[in-house]
Each structure stands twice: as C-alpha cells, then as structure tokens.
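Lecture 7 notes: from sequence to structure.

We start with a single chain of 295 residues. Read the sequence below before looking at the structure.
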Amino acid sequence: MSSTVDHPTNNQDKEYGSSPVAGANNGLHREMTHEEHQTAQAAARFGYGPLAHVGTSNSGLLPAFGGEFQPGLYRPVKDRKLANPAPLGLSAFALTTFVLSLINMQARHVAQPNIVVGIAFGYGGLVQLLAGMWAMAVGNTFAATALSSYAGFWIAFAITLTPGFAIPAAIEEAGGPGMFYDSFGFFLIGWFIFTTILLLVTLRSTVAFFTLFLALDLTLLLLAIGYLHRNEEGLPNPPIIKAGGFFGLIGSFAAWYNAMAGLADDSNSFFLIPVAHFPWSVTGQEQRLKPERAT
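Now the structure, written as tokens:
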C-alpha cells in the first residue's frame, strides 16, 4: 500500500475542502484526524457520513441524492436564495399517499377515500406544486418535473372525488359503473407510464431514491389492474387494490426517508441518513476506483 492512503494528495485535499459540509472555514478535511478521515471515507461508500455528498475534484459535481431529488450528478447551487424544496415536496407526496394507501388496504374497514380530498387539494396538490416550482427556480429539472406532475395527479384525483364536479356520475350515466372504473383505470395506467420513465432515470442514483419510484410504479400498476380487471360483482378487484395499497405504503415511507435525508445534517441531527449509491452509479464506480489508484 502506497503512502497515498496514509497521506492524502492535494487533489483529495481540494476535494474534501470544497465539500458543502466543510463549514465557514472551508477546512473539514484538515480538521479531521487520520482515523476520522478513513472512517468517513468508508461510510461515504454507503451514502452517509460527512463525506457522503462531496463532489469529485475532476467534475465539481455532487453525486445523486434523494434528499435533493437529484437522480444524477448535479452542480451545487452556491449561495442560493431558496432552500432545498425537495423535502417539502416529498413530505407532501408521502402523507397523501400514506392516507390513501391505508384506505386502499381497507385499514379498520375504511373503504371510502373522500377524506383524501382535502389532503390532495391542500398538501399533496398545492404545497407539492409550490415545491415543484421552487425546484425549478433552483435549477432542479427532475424535481420540478416529478413534484409538479404528482401535484397535478393529486389535484386531478381530488377533483374526480369532489361531488360538485359530478365526474363519476356523468360517466356512469353514459355507460354504467363499469365505464367509470375503466376510465379511472386508464387514468392510472397513464401515471404508471410516466412513473416508469422517472424510474428509469433513477437507475444510476441511490437505493433509497430508486426504491421510492419502484414502489410507486408498482402501486399505480396494481391499482390500474384492479380497476380494469374487476371481480364477479363488477367492482374493483379487492385483493389487487389492497396489494396496490401495500406498495403505496412502502412508497410513502420511502418518500419520507428521502425527505429526512434532505433535512438531516451534522448541524441538526446526531446521525445522517444512509442512501446507498448503486455500485454501477457514477459515484459507486469512483469509489471502487479510489482504492485502485491508491495502490
């Protein structure tokens, strides 16, 4: 083993000195002991610790991070006037999905989703839309697209359930309850396709980020199948709808997990949230190459 491991090079000093967690004196690496630095390097391989979200010296970019709703390398926004909007949007999505998923699973025999209307309009809709617009203001294209789109989903869902719009009644009058269930199944299939597109974009990000969209994708697919493939009574298939609710719960907790990862740092938390970069991601490949360069 060469001395490069025991005594980091100037490039490494530059890398860790430019870390966003370096503090006002821009010297986190210099303040750490050798043992602390080695421990932080090992922790960073799993997506947590003080060096987890540090960009490389070659690109100056930060690695994928669900807490910022960034699925790939991104440029840090220095001295931005707006805070990170991703945790707000993720929390709005998580809570609305959590409540609806419990109803889809018929928890405590609750089967009517009307309670979701207020949450979908206020939190999952309006607040998440604002978070999406703020994400656009800070230059986060993925977050702006995802958060704003799912805000539109919740607003459309709430409008469908609002009696004043009479959407189900109008469709059922034209072709019976089956026509409404088919129409709603088409609605969910469209969102499944959109979510699949976002899922593919997260394949080189982090495990936590990918898990969120995988669970959401399965949720939409199962719910769509449940509405299109009905039971003998002509109603949405209960076992499939409950399965969709189960994956919806997983998705809601995954959204909260990523939101907490974006909120917790070494200034307000005793621990940081591991997000685990995929081995085939840009960050994972760089982490595998570092020991090879050091030998």
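Confidence is low (pLDDT under 50) at residues 1-29, 53-58. Keep this in mind for problem set 3.
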